[in-house]
From TrEMBL:
Region (Disordered): 56-79, 493-517
Organism: Loxostege sticticalis (Beet webworm moth)
UniProt biased composition (Low complexity): 63-77
Subcellular location: Nucleus
Protein name as it appears in the record: BED-type domain-containing protein
Length: 631
């Protein structure tokens, strides 16, 4: 070690550069020169910039000199040998033992502290913690145990510095990724009212990103903003245009998914965009309408559940009887008016503990007991409603291709309901359940039958190697969609950008070259062939579609995007068109999830959080996966 490296000042500096002629402060990152290797600059810097930091760790103070303060030695003399043996036990004041203060941990370098600050911000945003978490005493103790050198930022520092910086950084990353990785973008949008009675609108973007290594469906939040304007079609249309312009995706948007609210549909049409009605919302409307036939039983079940929710005595008694009957210790579930599948959950749960509920009500509230007919209606309704619950769960997956599933799922639901209706003469069934089935059948046909003839749905189904023709209920809709697809892919095949380099080079190499002034006998023939090339390009696209259709179908559990990624060189034109279809989302559920997160973030204990801060927290929480983990 060099002489200057032995200086205590090097506890506070790091060598900068390969020639070791500069040093960087571990606290403020300022770089200082070392003229002739002299560390004087370092000492002056510490005194002027960091006067509160001790340069040398304090050591145990030396005891007073024995000659000056020791009382006269009155003990008897001891043999010299004993004095020698005891010598090692005496303190060596000329080389004192280090104390715990000697090993005090240095403050963290600024760069390391910044990384921890950013990770703290991520935790707050993604796990819905309040900003005042950093002011909670036990959390501060926990952090101090993990790393005593780290100083927690204040709530004000997080709110006014760390949060805005992290938001701006992630905003730029998200914009760059969307601009460079997306060939086509589908938007989904929805509205929400907070606990403070403030209105918010969220917009998410869905696209397929791919490179040489992988392909995947991406979902990013463009924004969840406070919206003070009236929710008219014109205002919503202008808001969507603003999002598209800010994110520079106006020419990439292929469709917009939303619920079936009239103002949303009108807003999409006003912007001349394609609209995708949220499948989950459509199923919700269809089932809610059909549940009207069992409304009497539904109301009775709600009253039973509400009674147990309100009475702790009833809950305790129910639990005791469940234990006596050796049935699962389950609690009743309450439904939510806007979500039909919560009704399904409520009915399923009460049947699961039917005997315990009957016994408890007989003891405590016999007037609330359900009749035999009520129990039959519930038990017959559950298997019917289950398929719609399963479809809603299936279609709400955010990371999976969804639009291509709509036609196959409609086919499954329709065949299921029609099959039950056909079996009516041979199946004992309550009249209310028969009416429920009839209405479900009508609702399904009214809301979904036409989607097979919609080119977006039809082409997405054909281009999903799991479905193709098998995804259609009617063959004529498949044949029509396939012919349109061939024409569109044929037109794409004329675009030079989609032709592989080897093909383009080969075409150029085969182009006839005639010496000047020496026309070839083939000149006229070559002109005719050149005129046929565009048609041949169209034919090449059509051939691609035909070859794709003849490929074996992919397993239903397979990943259609991976399948296409492995064959993008085999079907270059079809691959390009696939990017504009399989990214389309069948639901606006991603936006609804944003609002669920907003509800967590803006709970009663954080209801005073400013709307701008809420927008930034939600953006970070939704898009944090785009940032590479900092080591």
């Amino acid at each position: 070690m060099s002489a200057r490296k032995r200086s205590a000042l090097w506890n506070h500096f790091e060598t900068e550069g390969s020639d070791s002629k500069k040093a960087k402060c571990s606290y403020c990152a300022q770089v200082l020169a070392l003229p002739n290797g002299n560390v004087g600059n370092l000492g002056r810097h510490m005194k002027s910039k960091h006067p509160t930091i001790p340069l040398v760790p304090e050591r145990q103070a030396l005891p007073p000199s024995s000659s000056a303060t020791s009382p006269p030695n009155t003990t008897p003399s001891v043999p010299a040998l004993e004095q020698i043996n005891l010598e090692p036990l005496r303190p060596r004041y000329n080389n004192p033992q280090p104390t715990i203060r000697d090993f005090a941990i240095k403050p963290l370098p600024p760069r390391r502290a910044e990384k921890i600050d950013n990770q703290l911000m991520m935790m707050i945003a993604k796990e819905f913690h309040p900003l005042r978490l950093v002011e909670e005493e036990e959390f501060a103790k926990f952090v101090a145990l993990l790393n005593p050198s780290y100083s927690l930022p204040t709530r004000k520092t997080i709110s006014e510095s760390i949060l805005p910086k992290q938001y701006e950084k992630l905003l730029q990353v998200t914009k760059n990724k969307l601009a460079t990785d997306s060939a086509a973008v589908c938007l989904s949008t929805d509205g929400w009212t907070s606990i403070n009675n403030e209105s918010f609108v969220a917009v998410t973007a869905h696209y397929i990103s791919h490179d040489a290594a992988e392909i995947k469906l991406e979902t990013v939040l463009l924004g969840c903003i406070k919206y003070t304007e009236r929710h008219t079609a014109e205002n919503i249309c202008e808001l969507l245009k603003t999002f598209m312009n800010d994110w520079q995706i106006k020419n990439k948007v292929t469709a917009i998914s939303s619920d079936n609210a009239a103002n949303m549909i009108a807003a999409v049409r006003a912007g001349n965009w394609r609209h995708i009605a949220c499948l989950a919302h459509s199923i919700n409307r269809a089932v809610q309408t059909s549940l009207g036939h069992i409304s009497s039983t539904h109301v009775k079940v709600k009253q039973v559940v509400e009674y147990f929710k309100r009475s702790s005595h009833a809950q305790t008694k129910l639990k005791e009887i469940q234990k006596q009957l050796n049935v699962p210790d389950l609690k009743l579930k309450q439904d939510v008016a806007t979500r039909w599948n919560s009704t399904y959950d409520m009915l399923t749960r009460i049947v699961a503990i039917k005997d315990a509920v009957i016994a408890t009500l007989a003891l405590l509230r016999n007037d609330l007991s359900l009749s035999t007919d009520d129990w039959q209606i519930i038990e017959q309704a559950i298997p019917i409603l289950k398929i719609f619950n399963d479809v809603t769960t299936e279609i709400s997956a955010e990371k999976n291709v969804t639009l291509s599933k709509v036609s196959p799922l409609y086919k499954i639901m329709s065949n299921f309901v029609k099959g039950l209706l056909r079996s009516a003469p041979n199946t004992p069934r309550m009249p209310q359940i028969q009416s429920l089935l009839t209405t479900l059948d009508q609702q399904l046909d009214r809301r979904f039958a036409h989607l097979e003839s919609n080119d977006m749905y039809a082409e997405a189904t054909i281009l999903d190697p799991r479905f193709k023709r098998r995804g259609f209920k009617h063959d004529r809709n498949y044949e029509t969609a396939l012919n349109v697809l061939k024409q569109r892919v044929g037109r794409i095949s004329q675009d030079p950008e989609t032709i592989p380099r080897s093909t383009t080079s080969q075409s150029q190499a085969e182009a006839p070259v005639h010496p000047a002034g020496n026309p070839s006998i083939w000149e006229e023939f070559d002109r005719e062939v050149a005129g046929l090339r565009p048609e041949n390009s169209i034919a090449a696209g059509i051939v691609e579609v035909d070859r794709y259709i003849q490929e074996p179908m992919l397993s239903r559990q397979g990943n259609p995007l991976t399948w296409w990624h492995q064959r993008k060189e085999v079907y270059p034109h079809l691959f390009r068109y696939m990017l504009k279809r399989l990214h389309l989302t069948a639901t606006s559920v991603p936006c609804e999830r944003i609002f669920s997160k907003a509800g967590y973030t803006l709970s009663e204990r954080r209801s005073r959080l400013a709307s701008k801060k809420l927008e930034q927290l939600l953006f970070i929480g939704a898009n944090a996966h785009l940032l590479k983990c900092e080591k």
